[in-house]
Amino acid sequence: MPPPKDVVKIAIQMVGAIPQLIELQQTKPLASVLKDVCDAWSLPNAECYALQYVDGRQTYITESNRGEIKNGSILRLTTSPDQEAERLYSGIQSNNLDVKTDSLKKLASLSLDVTFAQEFINRNGLKQIFYIVEEGNDTGEMLAHTLKAFMELMEHDFVSWETLSAAFIKKIVSYVNMNAVDASVQQLSLSILENMVPTSRLLFELVKKEVTLDRLLTHLQVTNAQLQLKAMALLIALLLAATDAERRDMMDYLREKNIRQFIHKNIIHSSEPLGDEMAHYLYVLQSVSLNLCERRMRTSMDPYSQEQRELLQSLRQTAFESESEAPGSNFSTERRRSLCAKEFRKLGFMNNSNPAEDLRRAPPGLLALDNMVYFSRHTPNAYSRFVLENSSREDKHECPFARSSIQLTLILCEILHIGEPCSETAQAFYPMFFGQDRFFEELFCICIQLVNKTWKEMRATQEDFDKVLQVVREQITRTLSLKPTSLELFKTRVNALNYSEILKLRQTERLHQEETLAVPVLELRERLKPELLELIRQQRLLHLCEGTLFRKISSRRRQDKLWYCRLSPNHKVLHYGDVEDGVDSPPIESLPEKIPVADMKMLLMGKECPHTKEKSSGKQNKDVLELAFSIVYDMEEYCLNFIAPTRYEFCLWMDGLNVLLGKEMTSERMQTDLDVLLSMELKLRLLDLENISIPDTPPPVPKPPSNLNFCYDFSHAEQ
């Protein structure tokens, strides 16, 4: 008979004593439980003690979290949080440096626990930490422990960042700006400033003023990868908190300092592998930079703007040395207007009498005009060749430059997600972005010439305009998916992917689709499915056994909090626990928390998850919702909440957990994997039938022969 639900069997340890094995009644007050434990060891003053987990984060047991204790848990009898807080509060004020350093080290460790943190803060412990930082001159180990403790205490959100004193902030800033400081102190100082920046406009302005971009660039150039990462984190925090005008000024300054080339050479192509955190920051930097184009993209052309009209006229003047503007020409106004309209028509504007009308659509708005002007000024030969080559054609096969440029700009904005908010978890950046200044304009220059090339290869007319741009979009997206490291490599690859190559790829995909739609093939697919689905199930469970590193995403920061979860080899228990940064695959023994698979009741995802509902008051980030899932366990009372690092990991975990729950796998990745496996298996099975058409119905079975005398009788041979 199973034990009652409100009773758990646990072990309790104490230094120098024989462990106690007890049955903990969850309905019994914790104070009574502690008294019984202390009485068994003849310890007076039970109120001075508390229970604490032995493994993992060594959390204190309280009435609010005692329900999380599982059968087989090992606890430790230790000093109560209030007593420990009092002891450490006195210890960090000691005149003995060894005692003070040890107390600060212990404080940094215990501050992870919310119960202890509250007790310490209630004793005005933060004030003492401020005093140590503001008045102290130490820049070594003791200061590192102090800052670490401060970070952990602030993480619990008991105290607002806006309450920090100016003296404390200036001291933290000084550690960032000083050279002769321990690297760990600088890392913690950068993290503190990074957390301050998003909390208020005042703190943002203070940090932006005190920590210059030059100083952050200096930290980015060090060989210490962690210091480099924290400097990048603060830079990104400043960019995200800035106004549009401030962000533009900051990006212009960074461009002057060649930050892109430095990142391309020393971070992307460094000998060390690029971590997930740095990849995310590079994605954000790319997104912020590209989104500087958004204002022009969303602004329609103003036909009364002198500056915009001059830009438009410069396109015509660069392409055609018009007779109407030649020295000494005395054309009438009407004649001059007629010549201009003719030249704008040759440029490919739909409304040649008033070309500004073509640029009234936003997006792409003025961004299309900027791109055309950039192309005409920076590659004048290619521009003139494009325009003159097409304007002189009389066979209706001319490629309209202006119309193509407007549509191409819109396509590039969609592909590069210009105008969309940054994702909190994405890591997909283009390495070539950091290898080139004026990336968007240079990419346009390559792609507009690709439009002309593809137009000629397709022998297109005006009626084929949409078809040509569809092919160009496909050429660009297929090439970008290869992640070329430079624009030159992109140019080479995108030009190699000509129209005939696109047709071949489409033909291959179409033939494959037609093959797989034949009735006998569909029947074969259905027969193969169960075996391949079982293969996918096994792969998903193996992936869960290997485990995944998850991040705890809070409203203020994205880094530092890591935890790992993996399935036991016998598929009966999920093990999880907090890990330090840099640990890729911790052994299963080091993960203290457990959930028996038998206790798992349900799987939630997206908006149904409790950790996404908690944040529903704020601005929901779509990508976090798409990666969130929760395991409901233990009579549907508790949840283990996840935010997957990628969509791929999300799909694998959802499938694996559904397998453990005895349900069908439902992710899009499962369907993709099944299609790939079915395709490979079908190709192998149908290898001998290549170039043989498969009939929709099986051929008729012939009648049996009139006699079976042709059969060989093996019995005679044996004799």
From TrEMBL:
One of the GO biological process terms: actin filament organization
All residue ranges annotated as the ELMO domain in the record: 307-480
Keywords: Apoptosis, Phagocytosis, SH3-binding
Signal sequence, start to end: none
KW Isomerase (keyword) present: no
GO molecular function: SH3 domain binding
UniProt-listed InterPro entries: ARM-like, ARM-type_fold, ELMO_ARM, ELMO_dom, ELMO_domain-containing, PH-like_dom_sf, PH_domain
Annotated function: Involved in cytoskeletal rearrangements required for phagocytosis of apoptotic cells and cell motility. Acts in association with DOCK1 and CRK. Was initially proposed to be required in complex with DOCK1 to activate Rac Rho small GTPases. May enhance the guanine nucleotide exchange factor (GEF) activity of DOCK1.
Designated name of the protein: ELMO3 protein
Source species of the chain: Pandion haliaetus (Osprey)
Gene encoding the protein: Elmo3
